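Let us work through a complete example step by step.
Step 1: write down the sequence.
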Amino acid sequence: MNLIVNRRSRAFAAIVAIAAVAVLLLAASDRLRGLLANTAMVAAGTIVLALPLGVMLGTVIAKVDLPGRRVLTWLVIGWLFVPLYVQAAALNAMLGSGGFLPQAFAGSGYAWSWFTGWPAAIVMHAVGAVPWAALLTAASLRAVERRYEEESLLDASPLRVIMRVSLRRAFGGVCAAAVWIAVICATEIAVTDLFQLRTFAEEIYTQATLGSLSGTTTELLKSDLTVGIALIALLVGLALMLIVPWLPVAATAAADANWKWRPARGRGIGTTLVWLTAALIFALPMIGLVWKTGIDVRQTSGGYERSWSAMKAVTMVARSPWDQRRDWGWSLAIAASAAATATVIGVLLGWLARVRSGAAKPLAALIVLGFAIPAPLWGVWIIELLNHSHDSMFAPLTVLYDRTLAAPILAQTIRALPLVSLWVWSQFSSIPRDLVEAARSEGAGPVAQLFRVALPLRLPAVGTAALVGLLIAFGEVSATLLVVPPGVTTVSVRVFQLIHYGIDDRVAAVCLSVFGVLAVLVGAAAWLSRFYAAEESVRMIESQGSHRPRG
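Step 2: predict the structure and record it as tokens.
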């Protein structure tokens, strides 16, 4: 009965959200409608491309026991945190002007880009969105009750059970992935700015760089800003409404406890198809970067001769971190500070929502706003907060803006905080109530419960949240680009500026070094997850042994 009520309430909320969207669109100006239409075009194309591939990979990760499934899982997780500007550079190196495939067909002549305009922006966003769709689908499938699937196996084949039972019950996760992809397309500028496409977020960034948003007159009306943000907030709210019911369940579901299909026939064919799809999405852009890094152009009597050198590629990638050491230093300092700040705040907010029922809705509202507000607008607001004239009473804040890293740290903290808070909140929500009640009966207050119960139980999850915050902060460019102080350039800002002039060997080498750092971090996370899983298994075996009757 509760499940039916929840479904009805969610359906009613969805209808109300759709009605609110219609009202907001009527209140928008013609210009805002055009910007939103462009945004919707990018989002719809991205969903059409990314969602089927993501659902397929998510289903394999969660429900099909194929060789290399664990490696595929960590590959998807790793790609999730590859910054969008790096993905854009990689795809440009493969399909853009002078890219690997165009140059292969053009021979020694000039290679025109295969990758321009709306199709290119949609493909770039789709490549970045596939991991979101895969992981949200996998998490939702892991939350499906095993008994429903095993009962259905009595009357249907495993494939039909996955299609008609598992995916149907995990439909909320698939819908959440679609809505979340739309939110990403509506708030990011790394791709649309590269191709000069006018979307809502891109218009905010353009006017912010021109200074019109902070002046008394603005090309984009303040009312349109409010309407646009409200529309995106409704999308985010709809996504959270779909995600929240199964987040605590997915957080505690053991991978080994879920039913998985172990196909006897076609196992090799299925494995080949899955890994070909993964290679098309993840490996093809990497090949373009490797090729760009090793390109060696020499002038001869007959013109220019182009060749590829493996030694040059290895040398460029190895030297890139040292050549860009200042950019790497600034990036890591800012990102680490932002990740630490976001993790501390996220832990406090997540625990407050766990022990105070009235704090859950305000936290959900903060998460919605954090996701919904386009990143360039956060940059504009940070500038208005910290940058003041010398005769203002807030003039001392200008020192923080001009001579410290406070502005980019604040921007990256804001960008990382919603996802960190949502993750920590879901992990704290999955803590058994009996343990919290037992600690309270012993006289422990909320702070003692946090440090003595919650954090020891969810320490790996908090560490994961810190790593997530670090990766998000490191890859953030849309707001950081507007607020970095003079003399400070991060890797994200450097690459974002350079890819507008084409992907040369320097840019490709920097992007490959970013991939290397991410590979190390994801590898460390994979090792830690296996280490903690092994420790948990040993602890469970020991506890079962201690409860066995003697004699």
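Step 3: interpret the result. Residues 294 and 313 are 4 Å apart (CA to CA).
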